[in-house]
Amino acid sequence: MKMHQFVIIGLGRFGSSIGKELIQLGYEVLGIDRNEETVQELSKVLTHAVVADATEEEALRSLGARNFDCGVVAIGDDIQASILATILLKELGVKKVVAKAVNELHGRVLERIGVDRVIYPERDMGIRVAHQLVSPNLLDYIELSKKYTIAELAVPGCLTGKSLADVNPRGKYGCSIVAINKPKGIIIAPNAEDVLTERDVMVVIGTNESIEQFQESIGS
Ligand code: ATP
Asked: Are 136 and 220 in contact (CB under 8 A)?
């Protein structure tokens, strides 16, 4: 299901960053915050920005929160407010509710009350940065499950000019190159004859171990 309209509760750094990006992507965003100055600032950017206390059911109801496809609860420090706002969005019938958690316990409570996705921005970004620090060629990655990952790896000098048949990560390590992002465009499901060049990015899928072994072999 494609989401079109988003309501964001809490317009701090995290909430406002999500809101601004959604606007850039062409979506409609209602921002709610109890701080008047914050709302004034964001009202120039978001579709609508309103001063309200998101722990008050009537306030959310009168803003028509139930009509939104997706709600983001981006309140962190006030855990009680985060939980109440989440419950209210769920009860009002918002189809998908995503909430920020500041620690594991907060996250577990949010899961118990039925949030669709819990986000730990600082923890997750810390983990990403650590991975990128120890693997300079690793540009980004998505964990598909505890065991499997998709990683974006910059093509190092030692692979430039080589074909996928030469590199052969599937035969050697068990992971596959499912796409090559070249400056001229992306090649999906590349062939064995496709050649890697310096500014390419490989999209690799496999078990965590197989990707790690491939990364080590290319000095990443
Ligand atoms: P960030 O890290 O995103 O900058 P923060 O940690 O500085 O956030 P938080 O306490 O997480 O601050 O609050 C984020 C925003 O949520 C603030 O702008 C705050 O005014 C707003 N907020 C907090 N409680 C409520 C509430 N009950 N209703 C509406 N907005 C709220």
From this structure: yes
CB-ligand 1 contact for 12 (6 Å cutoff): yes
| Total number of domains constituting the chain | 2
Q: Helix, strand, or coil here: 151?
A: strand
CATH assignment at residue 111: 3.40.50.720
- Kindly state the tokens that stand for 204: 């690799």
Q: Both 27 and 98 in a single domain? A: yes
Residue keyed to tokens 């949030």: 115
Q: Which of 34, 37, 39, 63 gets mutated to test ligand 1 (max ligand atoms within 8 A of its CB)?
A: 34
Shortest-distance Cα residue to atom 21 of ligand 1: 10
The pTM of the full predicted model, rounded to 2 decimals, is: 0.79
> In this predicted model, what pLDDT tens digit does every residue of 21-36 receive, in sequence order?
999 999 999 999 999 9
For tokens 């065991």, name the residue.
147
Range of the domain at 108: 5-119
Question: Is 116 near ligand 1, meaning CB less than 6 Å away?
Answer: no
Ligand 1 within 6 A of CB of 7: no
**pLDDT tens, position by position, 138-188:** 888 898 998 999 999 999 999 999 999 999 999 999 999 999 999 999 999
